[in-house]
Sequence to fold (236 residues):
Amino acid sequence: MKRTQGLYCKMMPQDETFIKMEWKTSAELVPYTDAVAWMEERVAQIVAGTAPEVIWLLEHPPLYTAGTSADVKDLTDPDRFPVFQAQRGGQYTYHGPGQRVIYVLLDVGKRGRDVRKFVKDLEHWVIATLAEFNVAGEIRDGRVGVWVQRPDKPLTASGAIAEDKIAAIGIRLRKWVSFHGISINLEPELEHFSGIVPCGISEHGMTSLVDLGLPVTIEDLDLALKRCFGQIFPNT
Fold:
C-alpha cells in the first residue's frame, strides 16, 4: 500500500538500552470497569518495579466516559449508553466496537518528566500510524487529538475545509506512570457519537478509517501501531 512520503514507519533495532515493555491484546470486548481495575493494579506494579510497562490494545462495549473537564451539558443523551466517570484528562468521549482503544502504561519519569511532550508524542504516534494507510492526520492548537481534512464535504460557515476527528487522547499520571490513553476510530458506529458533544467540540464531525474509504482491519491497525511505536518512543 502506498504510504505518505517520509511518514511511514520501520521496525527499530533492539539492543541492551531498550526498556522492557509488554504488548497486550484482548480479542473480546472488555468491560470498562474491568479495564480500569486492571490498569490501576498494573500502574502500582510498574511504580513498584515489579512489572514492565505495557501497551494494551482492546475494544469496549458501547459506552460514554467523562474526563476530568467534562461539562454535563455535553452529555446530550444520558440514557443511551452507560456513562462512566474517567480519571483521564479531557471531556466526554465514546468507546465501542470497531474503535481501537490503546491504553498506554508508560513510565514518563524515565522519559524526561515532560507531560506536554509526552502527549505530543502520543499524537505523533497516531499520525505516523495513520500515514501507514496514506491518511494525513493533523493536530490543531486548542484541540487535543488527531484530525483529518475532509475536502469531500461542504466548506464550513467560515469557508474553511471541513475537518473530522479520527482519534482521541486522554491520559492520567500516577507517580509519573501514565494510564488511559488513545482511541482510534477504525469502524465504529459513528452515529453513536451523537449522544455527546465529543471532547466539547460541536463544530467538527467524527470519522474513521473505514468511513474514509479504507478497507483496514483491526489487525492491520495493530501492526501499524507496533511498527510506528519505536519511531516515536525510541529505546523502548
Residues 1-8, 11-18 have pLDDT under 50 and may be disordered. The longest strand covers residues 163-174. The chain has three helices and eleven strands.
